[in-house]
Amino acid sequence: MDKLKVAITNMQKEMKIPTGIRLLIRKCCHAVLQLEGMSGNFEVSVSFLDNESIRELNHKYRNKDAVTDVLSFPTGENGKFEINQETGATMLGDIAISIPMVYKQAEQYGHSIQREFAYLTVHSMLHLLGYDHEAGGLAQVRMREKEEEVLARLGLQRDASYVREDI
């Protein structure tokens, strides 16, 4: 891979974004593209939202009137993506992350905020590249294996992230 531009925008004000999260998100995006053996220049947009904003997007684009943790909006289909005419970069799409859900799920699953941000980013990047788990079966297993492989490469594997230090 030659170059990856990850534009990150914080569109919510209710929760603080921990130091280092933006860098972690960039590393996650890069790791997914590396795992997939992709070369060239790429662009991804990541937005941090509150629960109401992500609920509205979920309702508008998926017809689900509920809060969700992350949404993916790919610009491509079947491996063909839009190209930014100014930069020549392949535009993979947009990722929307609910910051309140990151905190809630990290606590719920007993792992760090960093792992939750990383998991949601990797999960969403795989969606941008065409992976889908919605139907279940082999596609779901395949996507889950890729998620865990990327997280392990980043030192955020599941077995380490579920160990509670207060026990």
Describe what you observe in this structure.
- By secondary structure, the chain is an alpha/beta fold.
- The chain is 45% helix and 20% strand.
- The protein has helices at 21-35, 51-62, 99-109, 113-128, 137-153, 158-161, and strands at 3-10, 41-49, 70-74, 82-83, 90-98.
- Residues 160-167 have low confidence and may be disordered.
CATH fold-level name? Collagenase (Catalytic Domain)
Helical content class: 40-55%
Distance between the termini: 42 Å
Strand content: 15-25%
Total number of domains: 1
Low-confidence stretches: 160-167
Class from secondary-structure proportions: alpha/beta
> What does the largest sheet look like?
5 strands, mixed
Provide a brief overview of the structure.
This protein has 167 residues and is of the alpha/beta class. 45% of the residues lie in helices and 20% in strands.
